[in-house]
Design goal:
Length: about 600
């Protein structure tokens, strides 16, 4: 969600912090600010609501703010409106402490009442401000800054990451991590704090993610843990800063869609097996947990996996899993899917699954993330940094990983030839995706007409239905066009009442046994005046009244959600362009959803 950056070293801090915030903007934000430890024991703060351009203008690029240590923040509002007085960093009344905060403090109201009763005044509606006053109170009582942090953290309930500076320690930067993402970067005579790697990648490749419930103290000379904890184990980031830049594309989303062929090829062949053969052969069932696009990965995997392996598969929205009383069978595998590896609802569901005794496999993109660490086994998709808020290449990589998982289970249960057929099919996916990308002009023509509508419907049957759900989500996320997806057979059970003249209906028909059923739905909506846009497999006969059609290259039909998803991603991108919207930072959304 929000973004944190911190620095202590020899460079002017303010320009570096502002640059780092720019590289965190993809996470989603509605205000931003920085605070720098200046000469004379002062903390200089600059904040602004809205886009970073306003902060840059207000701070004059940071050139006039002295100091070589400080913190910065991009805020995605949870408590209080997105106004400047609610923006981070927050300061105590005496200007002695500044704090930036990601996450939510669950007991902030009772802490606020306690502090107000002691005479502390509040200038914001945020939960964060209680942290500032608790720290200032502790320092005033004689605690060292590190002790004040320990005492304050002991009072806070929730999940969060903090960056903190104290006026009494002019070159020191503190970080606190409780489950929310936070990492430390090490340079030559300088140290960094960040919520995500791109913020600091131009300056260092050496990063360490502290365990949860850790307080770190950074100076230009290194990192110390003021209280007992494991020694930092820095790792080298293998991708470079160029991977987090647009590279000539109009948006990160466009760039990342064009990276899908390479990402799919890599995920299909690289890395260890998702499961040991002995475990794969004994799986009695599979349960997926995920949110948004990751949930759709599970749905697509369920169609594929049950047909291939004969093993029952269930799929849960992660936020609902904890409250579902269904028992997990012995030797049932739980698969947690998350791009960031920090999705709060998925993490909570994972912990509930482990509490029930399940073996948990996670499919994530970020090495060392919390979900990865808390799983029994992890498969890294290694799709590289995904900057655009709407997932594209990571979704496809996750889907390939799930297909690989079921190929392994099928091999262990039914023989090598069954799994080999899947892997052979996956080898054809990169070329199929390239052909979809080459046909972008056909998608663009569809988008020109769809962009004029107020709502749209996606319909499909079988394995096409999860792909339609993903297409609908993408269209909603970045074009703000209301869209819904339904199994084609469900339209006549109520929803067809919403189909009127000119309403776009995007029909996906790639499953040979069901194409006739889907086309029956096409006839139904066409009879009511809908404009039908048909996306189908090049080998299928799909005669139907349509406003336009797009033909997908043929691969194994159970793998067709992959090229279909790319076509839908392009469609959403083109509709957003028609509406003159920024696809990388859709309103109200954030890349990594670290609050429940």
């Amino acid at each position: 969600m929000c973004g944190i950056i911190g620095y202590t070293g020899v460079r002017p801090a303010a320009p570096l912090l502002l640059e780092g915030l720019g590289r965190l903007a993809y996470r989603g934000y509605d205000s931003a600010g920085i605070a720098v430890l200046a000469d004379g024991g002062r903390i200089v703060r600059c904040r602004a609501e809205g886009k970073l351009a306003r902060l840059l203008e207000k701070c004059q690029g940071g050139a006039e703010i002295p100091g070589t240590a400080g913190i910065g923040h991009t805020r995605w509002a949870t408590h209080g409106a997105p106004l400047e007085h609610n923006a981070h960093p927050h300061l105590d009344g005496g200007g002695r402490v500044a704090v930036v905060h990601n996450g939510i403090i669950e007991n902030w109201r009772e802490l606020r009442r306690e502090l107000a009763g002691e005479g502390y005044t509040f200038s914001s509606e945020t939960d964060t401000e209680v942290i500032v006053h608790l720290l200032a109170r502790a320092v005033a009582a004689g605690r060292t800054p590190a002790e004040a942090l320990r005492d304050t953290v002991g009072r806070l309930r929730g999940t969060y990451a903090l960056g903190v500076i104290f006026a009494c320690e002019p070159e020191v930067l503190y970080g606190v991590r409780r489950e929310s993402p936070l990492l430390v970067g090490r340079g030559d005579g300088e140290m960094f704090l960040a919520s995500d790697i791109p913020a600091i990648l131009p300056y260092t490749r050496l990063v360490w993610e502290p365990p949860t419930d850790t307080i770190v103290r950074l100076t230009p000379r290194g990192v110390t843990l003021p209280f007992p904890g494991d020694a930092p184990a820095f790792r080298e980031v293998t991708w470079d800063a160029a991977a987090a830049e647009r590279g000539g594309y109009a948006s990160f989303m466009e760039k990342e869609i064009h990276e899908i062929p390479q990402v799919v090829a890599h995920t299909a062949t690289e890395g260890e097996a998702l499961l040991p053969p002995s475990l794969a052969g004994n799986v009695t069932g599979v349960t997926f947990i995920g949110c948004g696009s990751a949930y759709h990965v599970g749905l697509a995997g369920a169609y594929f996996g049950e047909k291939l392996t004969g093993v029952p598969v269930r799929v849960f929205v992660a936020s609902e899993f904890r409250y579902h009383p269904v028992p997990l069978a012995p030797r049932e595998l739980v698969v947690a899917v998350s791009q960031s590896g920090e999705t709060a609802d998925t993490l909570a569901a994972l912990r509930e699954a482990k509490r029930r005794g399940a073996y948990v496999l996670s499919v994530v993109n970020v090495v060392g993330s919390t979900i990865a660490r808390e799983s029994d086994r992890v498969f890294y998709t290694q799709a590289g940094p995904e900057i655009a808020v709407a997932t594209t290449k990571a979704f496809c990589a996750q889907l390939v990983a799930v297909y690989r998982l079921f190929a392994e289970i099928a091999t262990a249960k039914r023989g090598r030839a069954v799994g080999a057929e899947v892997l052979s099919g996956l080898a054809k996916v990169p070329d199929a995706v390239r052909r979809v990308l080459d046909g972008r002009e056909g998608i663009r023509r569809m988008a020109h007409r769809i962009a004029q509508a107020e709502s749209a419907f996606f319909i499909g049957r079988g394995a096409d239905y999860p792909a339609c759900l993903e297409g609908s989500l993408k269209l909603k996320e970045i074009s703000y066009l209301h869209a819904e997806a339904y199994p084609a057979g469900e339209l006549k059970h109520g929803t067809i009442s919403l189909v009127t003249a000119g309403v776009p209906v995007i029909a996906l028909a790639t499953q040979s046994a069901l194409v006739g059923k889907t086309l029956s739905g096409v006839e139904e909506v066409h009879a009511r005046g809908a404009e039908v846009y048909l996306i189908t497999d090049e080998t299928l006969t799909a005669d139907a009244p349509t406003a336009a059609r797009f033909v997908l290259p043929h691969i194994h039909e159970m793998l067709m959600p992959l090229p279909a998803a790319v076509a839908f991603e392009l469609l959403a991108l083109e509709v957003a362009a028609e509406r003159e919207l920024d696809p990388d930072m859709p309103r109200n959304l954030a890349k990594s959803v670290t609050v429940e």
